[in-house]
Amino acid sequence: MNTLAFKIEPCPVANDHQVRLIVDGHDWFEDDDTLGIDPPEFFAQGALISGGMITVGRCGCGAVGCDNIEFEVERKSPGVIWRVREGVSYVFRESDYDRLIEAASSDFSWEDANRTAERLVADVLAGTTIDDGFQFDWASARVGHGKITLSYSRAGEQRTFDFGWDGVTPESAIPGAKRFKQTRVDQGVGGQPATPPRVGD
Predict the structure, then answer these.
(1) pLDDT tens readout for residues 26-37
(2) Given 87, 105, 123, which residue is the final one in a domain?
(3) How far apart are alpha carbons 167 and 163 in whole angstroms?
(4) Are residues 94 and 119 in the same domain?
(5) For residue 194, is it within any domain?
(6) Residue of 68, 81, 130, 139 with fewest CB within 10 Å of its CB?
(7) What pLDDT score does 195 carry?
(8) Could you give the count of Cα atoms lying within 13 Å of 38 in the half-sphere of its Cβ?
(9) Burial of 13 (0-12, 13-18, 19+ CB in 10 A)
(10) What CA–CA distance (Å, rounded) separates 48 from 71?
């Protein structure tokens, strides 16, 4: 059977990070300019465990959706099969594979303060919906220093909101996320949004 490991490293082109696939001890992307997927997005793919199509790579420009690389995951006990392309597959021992995915998806040692703040804010706002059915997509601390930017979308339309944090201590972003949730998510009524927190609040 094949072996699998993940290496997470910064991706300056996209101002995020990337999951590099290490198959049988070698970086699967080493021979071209393909970039890995940002860790939160990569590990959020349910098909990693349940089976189905997963996105493992993106164009060297850094944009997801541009020249993506996709594998098919198939569970066939006692192995997990990654079908790369016609005639090329990898088979991983099921128990080892499941342990790896669980450990890697809960390992945040690669995060800097910005990425930790984003995760903590996303934990507060995950699954929330604001007025007119806009649903939470992501939180970013990388748009501007000392600012958390939130994205909510509906049918291709996006709304963004900002609130402040100290830019150093990830936990300092949590109060702003909770205030946003209270004023915009919990108390927004009839499509008339409450006033969102201001930058610096």
Answers:
(1) 999 987 789 999
(2) 105
(3) 11
(4) no
(5) no
(6) 68
(7) 40
(8) 17
(9) middle
(10) 10
Residues 146 and 91 in one domain: no
| Domain with 56 in it | 4-105
Residue 90 contacts residue 81 (beta carbons within 8 Å): yes
Domain membership flag for residue 196: no
Residues 96 and 125 in one domain: no
Hey, is 163 helix, strand or coil?
strand
Q: Evaluate whether 49 touches 100 at the Cβ level (below 8 Å).
A: no
In a domain, 138, yes or no: yes
Report the length, in residues, of the chain.
201
Amino acid at 66: C
Instruction: Mention every residue, 6+ apart, whose C-beta is less than 8 A from residue 182.
Output: none
* Number of domains observed in the structure of the chain: 2
End-of-domain residue from the set 59, 89, 105: 105
Tell me the whole-structure pTM to 2 decimals: 0.86
How is residue 15 written in tokens?
Answer: 């101002």
Q: Tell me: the pLDDT tens digits for 153-191?
A: 999 999 999 999 999 999 999 999 999 999 998 654 433
pLDDT tens digits for range 27-67: 999 877 899 999 999 999 999 999 999 999 999 999 888 88
Say if residue 143's pLDDT is above 80.
Answer: yes
